[in-house]
Amino acid sequence: MCIFVVVKLLGLADIGSNLRDLWIWANLSWGFISCVICGVQWYLLTLIKVTPRICRVTEEDRRCLNINTDCEEDTAETEEDKQEEEVNKASVMRLLAYSKPDLPYLLAAFLFLTLSSTGRIFLPYFTGQVIDGIAIEKSQTKFINALITMSLITLASAIFAGLRGSIFTYIMARLNLRIRDDLFSSITQQEIGFFDNIRTGDLVSRLTSDTSTMSDALALNINVFLRSLITSIGVIVFMFKLSWKMSLVTFAGLPIIIIVSKYYGTYYETLSEKVQDSLAKANVIAEEALSTMRTVRSFANEGGEKSRYYKALTITYRLGVKLALIYGGYVISNEVFELILTIATFYYGGHLVITDQLTAGNLVSFILYQIQLGECLDAIGDVYTGLMQSLGASHKVFEYIDRKPVIFNNYKGYEPDRLHGRIEFQNVNFSYPTRLDTTVLKNINISIEPGEIVALVGPSGGGKSSLVNLLQHFYETQSGQILLDGVKIQNYSHSYLHRKISMVGQEPVLYARTISENISYGLEEEFSQADILNAAKLANAHDFITKMTKSYETETGEKGLQISGGQKQRIAIARALIRNPVVLILDEATSALDSESEHVVQQAIYSNVKGRTVLIIAHRLSTVESADRIIVINQGQVAEEGRHEELLARGGMYANLVKRQLNTLDMGSSKSQTDITASVFF
Ligand SMILES: Nc1ncnc2c1ncn2[C@@H]1O[C@H](COP(=O)(O)OP(=O)(O)OP(=O)(O)O)[C@@H](O)[C@H]1O
């Protein structure tokens, strides 16, 4: 109907009707009004489809009519859309606020953008002038003048475009730096429970791809959007100036192209999102397999992992096929509509040139403008999708940047000059945040004196590691408190607490750095080379380190994979000892050592414990028996406590476990004494 109105107007103008006649405009207005009414009707029809009216159908109707929950889905979808819109609005504001420090650069970039876009608008006009000068007027002066003007405009526009591009890229780099820094710092502040619940791959993709997509929003999409918008406005003005009749032909056909593009675009976008999601799932599978390649190899499960990955990829592939079909349909229909529009323009333009209503040069200019407008509208469409993607990504990034950790790390807390190392657990009850329904520690009351060596023993899963996790303030207790020298651990400064309490964990993590850097990890220049050597000697690591060709400068590889398990443990012990901690926690820290090395390390620890409280979690009898006190933890409770001999005499759980252990050893009478002391206790 729109096209009909336009064609009627052009036809009347062409047969020489007086366009000032009222009846002509009344007729055209009627056509236009009916067009609007038609649009409104279509809109109302679409609304009916998604109104929750069907939802008022009773349960009985639903059963009789076998109506499913589609209507609920529809309403849910509209709710979701609304929410997404709100989120996008908030993200735009946030993104703009984030760009505040770049305001001077942004203003400069926008200035150059306006200048370069304005320059580009004049180019087709002068191209037409050159053609008119050559072909119609055959005037050398006219075409040379037009050529010079065109060259100057092109040159200026190129310089401005270059300046615009580099400033936007610079802004993008600055924005990226700020966002990544803020995001990484926010993530590293989160409580340990947060990391229990989230995949590392997820966080890494926030840090890498989402932050890039997000800065693209500003530097790339907004740049392209504004550039295309300014050019489009200028182009439309020129088109109407050259020929209002031809402009009407162009704009009559344009809505069809826009509707087709939007229809396909929305569908394409939804499918693309699905492809991205399925690809992310496949990536998780690949990441898991690649990061555990040793385990995969040792179970010879390469085939299993391959087929898991292939299955995930097949989903992406199927979606990809659908996407390809949709894309094909889109390109064909788009090209056909564009062809129709071009033919209409040439046909009508040719008619205008032949009837002397338009010059040939102006026709060429007009067609160039038409192409430019098509490009700009295409770019605006693409930018919209890109902008939405960026906003989606920025929403996720801001969610992490804004997240307040559940456990607050006190950065300016209590820092006494001297710490004695008295530890008290008072009525502690604890569940992990990921499993709140399971109480891991139940009413724990333990008091450890400064300088005492306490061994925590008990069956696996009893709660020993959870106790030391709490002592390091990795988690918050549900009730009760943990005191260090009579002060709640949460009142201490974060860095002070972790300088005074050092831990060597069950699977010590080394970084892909040199041995020397691993031992001094986190110490920031407050140590000497002698300190590193001393700590390594205490941990019985010095000898094996100096035997390596690069000695302390040997790289340990990713997660310390280039050295043995026992060597890794000794470096981790040296890393704990260099801090000269008041409380030393060894959670199965010597389990990978042979009994000889373990003995040396233990001697080193025991002879250096003066003024140091040591908490040892161990399964080996040799490690446990020489402790000042043994605490048996079973099912989250303190089952028994006392010295080795006392507990043996008491004949309780500890004694039973020792007896059972020794019986097992008696049966293997060929074992040496070393084997006995090294054997697994619990
Ligand atoms: N991060 C966690 N999230 C949820 N539950 C956990 C977590 N870590 C441990 N648990 C659970 O808490 C309970 C106590 O585990 P903990 O590691 O403290 O036992 P443990 O005595 O140190 O065992 P082991 O001797 O095998 O190291 C177990 O049931 C375990 O499954």
Automatic annotation (TrEMBL):
Any Gene Ontology CC annotation: endomembrane system
Name recorded for this polypeptide: Uncharacterized protein
Domain ABC transmembrane type-1 intervals: 107-389
Cell compartment(s), UniProt: Endomembrane system
First-listed, main subcellular location of the protein, grouped into a coarse class: membrane
Transmembrane feature ranges: 23-44, 103-123, 143-171, 218-240, 246-264
Keywords: ATP-binding, Membrane, Nucleotide-binding, Peptide transport, Protein transport, Translocase, Transmembrane, Transmembrane helix, Transport
SUPFAM superfamilies found in the cross-reference section: ABC transporter transmembrane region, P-loop containing nucleoside triphosphate hydrolases
Organism in which the protein naturally occurs: Lottia gigantea (Giant owl limpet)
Pfam families, sorted: ABC_membrane, ABC_tran
Record membrane topology: Multi-pass membrane protein
Residue ranges of every copy of the ABC transporter domain listed in the record: 423-660
Highest taxon in the source lineage: Eukaryota
Leader sequence residues: none
A Gene Ontology molecular function term of the record: ATP hydrolysis activity
The keyword Transmembrane helix is annotated on this UniProt entry: yes
InterPro entries assigned: AAA+_ATPase, ABC1_TM_dom, ABC1_TM_sf, ABC_transporter-like_ATP-bd, ABC_transporter-like_CS, P-loop_NTPase, Type_1_exporter
Family label: Belongs to the ABC transporter superfamily. ABCB family. MHC peptide exporter (TC 3.A.1.209) subfamily.
